[in-house]
Specification:
The protein is α/β, with parallel strands linked by helices. The chain folds into 2 domains: 6-242, Aminopeptidase (3-Layer(aba) Sandwich), CATH 3.40.630; 254-322, Beta Barrel (OB fold (Dihydrolipoamide Acetyltransferase, E2P)). The protein has helices at residues 56-68, 84-87, 111-115, 122-134, 160-169, 213-229, and strands at 33-37, 44-49, 76-81, 139-146, 153-155, 174-177, 201-209, 251-260, 266-268, 277-278, 284-288, 291-294, 300-303, 315-322. Helix 5 links the parallel strand 5 (153-155) and strand 6. Helix 1 crosses helix 6 (213-229). It is globular and about 60 Å long.
């Protein structure tokens, strides 16, 4: 008997994908990208949506900021819809297919890849267009959602400065500290964001399952908090209903290693969705080309397990340890 896995379940699309055509012009010379300058000293803050084309909660949130006319009181504010080409391919009958067009937009963020004019893809072209703006950003919030139904997460990156920013933000309650993916570097780790000596910083927030209304609630809440924390806006500038109750406590899980599929022959031992904790080392959590995948230590936490994008070389789950607070 085959053990059911999360990818066998089709999640309903319970949020509307908004028409973004009215935002195509932008105001930066880059389509779908807006920058507003207060004229006063302060940080350059960026709220980014649609790193993946089917992760709509960020698009709804950034559209909301534009529709509300939110402007920075201090510093600069950039609002971006990143992988718009992937978003425009969304089809509710195959909702995972619009994650990207040619390659994962969140695996191309190294100077070597961006400078390599011998390579080309829809995502590389868009990243190269966005790069001059991102190179001037002091604080980035990258809004994402997840394949499976799991509690929302802050992905802080591997550095202490990312963990500190996560704690200052205060929500969501679970922080994942990790090195990223073997496939390539994420936007949140790009350049100075990944330099421990730089004050520039970034967070990625996984707001919940892609198409659940609760992911929009989380995206709006963490965006409002991020803008206030950075000093870009005051609390009165944001709608009161964007704020959700702050969690009583936060926890940090340090990812120690990824589990990477060797081929299409990977399966989990159960229908994991994320944050499952295994008390003892040696627990079998799946099979990679028939070889058991086991937990390497006690109290091992599964971080974002999913086979929805399964292919050779893809990280299907990460393994983490709870840090002392």
């Amino acid at each position: 008997m085959t053990t059911p896995s999360p990818q066998d379940h089709a999640y309903p699309v319970d949020v509307e994908f908004p028409d973004l055509s009215g935002y195509a012009a932008g105001n930066t010379g880059i389509p779908y990208v807006y920058t507003f300058d207060s004229g006063l000293p302060g940080s350059h803050v960026m709220i980014n949506a649609l790193t993946h084309g089917n992760e709509v909660c960020g698009a709804i949130t950034v559209k909301g900021l534009l529709d509300l006319g939110v402007r920075p009181r201090r510093g600069k504010l950039t609002l971006a819809f990143s992988n718009i080409e992937a978003y425009l391919t969304f089809d509710a009958s195959k909702p995972d297919a619009s994650r990207f067009v040619d390659q994962d937009f969140n695996r191309v963020w190294t100077a070597a890849k961006l400078d390599d004019t011998g390579t080309d893809s829809s995502e590389l072209r868009r990243a190269r267009a966005l790069r001059p703006v991102i190179d001037t950003v002091d604080a980035l919030l990258d809004l994402h959602s997840m394949h499976e139904r799991s509690a929302p997460l802050i992905v802080s990156g591997p550095l202490d400065k990312g963990i500190a920013l996560s704690r200052a933000l205060g929500a969501p309650a679970t922080v994942i500290s990790d090195e990223g993916h073997p496939e390539g570097r994420r936007m949140r780790d790009y350049a100075d964001f990944g330099d421990p000596q730089s004050t520039r910083n970034a967070l990625l927030v996984e707001c919940g399952q892609h198409w659940e209304p609760s992911s929009v609630v989380v995206a709006k809440d963490c965006t409002a908090r991020f803008l206030m924390l950075s000093g870009t806006v005051d609390e009165a500038d944001m709608p009161a209903d964007w704020f959700a109750p702050r969690p009583d406590a936060m926890r940090v899980i340090r990812v120690t290693q990824p589990v990477v599929a060797k081929s299409m022959d990977f399966r989990f031992a159960d229908a994991y969705t994320g944050l499952e904790t295994f008390p003892k080392a040696g627990a079998v959590i799946g099979w990679n080309e028939g070889e058991p995948v086991v937990t390497p230590y006690d109290n091992c936490v599964l971080v974002m397990p999913s086979l929805r994008q399964l292919r050779p070389g893809v990280t299907v789950v990460r393994l983490g340890q709870l840090l002392d607070n």
